[in-house]
């Protein structure tokens, strides 16, 4: 069962897709959006759902460090509701605290990527981390039972 991971921002949505076994996540692309103008990129999401035979979504939930939910978390939850309404597929949320920071650190330390190039891939890499964290956590839960 393939899952799509989404890192929802106010201007872009990073997209990642899992393999069919649910072991690995791979960043796919970054979709431009504009929350203010109500442009959410769902047409492109639909194309990717069909292309990759996606069976569910994992949306990053940007919690505050004290575990509370702020405005960005509410925006991610709203995006999840739109996915449910449009596709009728299950949507789960994954705590994404520090995934963008981790993605940036990986690009700087491991790939020595310039700031300009990082901006072009950071959301896609963050989506991959969100989805991979979800897959790892759920795989461990399944094996423990």
Automatic annotation (TrEMBL):
InterPro entries named among the record's database cross-references: RNaseH-like_sf (IPR012337), YqgF (IPR005227), YqgF/RNaseH-like_dom (IPR006641), YqgF/RNaseH-like_dom_sf (IPR037027)
Occurrences of domain YqgF/RNase H-like (ranges): 1-103
Any one GO CC term of the record: cytosol
GO molecular function: hydrolase activity, acting on ester bonds; nuclease activity
Taxonomic placement: Bacteria, Bacillati, Bacillota, Bacilli, Lactobacillales
Function field: Could be a nuclease involved in processing of the 5'-end of pre-16S rRNA.
PANTHER family cross-referenced by the UniProt entry: POLYNUCLEOTIDYL TRANSFERASE, RIBONUCLEASE H-LIKE SUPERFAMILY PROTEIN
Species the sequence originates in: Levilactobacillus koreensis
Enzyme class: hydrolase
Domain of life: Bacteria
Family: Belongs to the YqgF HJR family.
Record localization: Cytoplasm
SMART domains in UniProt: YqgFc (SM00732)
Keywords annotated in UniProt: Cytoplasm, Hydrolase, Nuclease, Ribosome biogenesis
Annotated EC: 3.1.-.-
KW Transmembrane (keyword) present: no
GO biological process: rRNA 5'-end processing
Protein name (Swiss-Prot/TrEMBL): Putative pre-16S rRNA nuclease
Major place of residence: cytoplasm
Entry-linked Gene3D superfamilies: YqgF/RNase H-like domain
